[in-house]
Fold this protein.
Amino acid sequence: MGADFSPLRPGGIAEIGPKRWKMIEVSRTLMKSEPELADLVAEVEGIEVTMAEKGFGTRVEVRAGQGSGLGEADLERILDRLAEPQKQPFGSA
């Protein structure tokens, strides 16, 4: 018949669009609220972040394009930094 137009490459890996759109992703549930995390995430550039409430914390997914220069270890360090307790001065609300 004709060419095989299956969206899966050998090995079952989907290839959609150019390679530059492939993403590296890490996720973790952090024991902080979405608003608290949103303030911290706003300081980080070059990544995509999604958050959703989960139990007593927030599920955080951090993604970066493979061409961003960031690797999985870099994204794990970002999650580590987000998970760190934030020191607040006495008397702040």
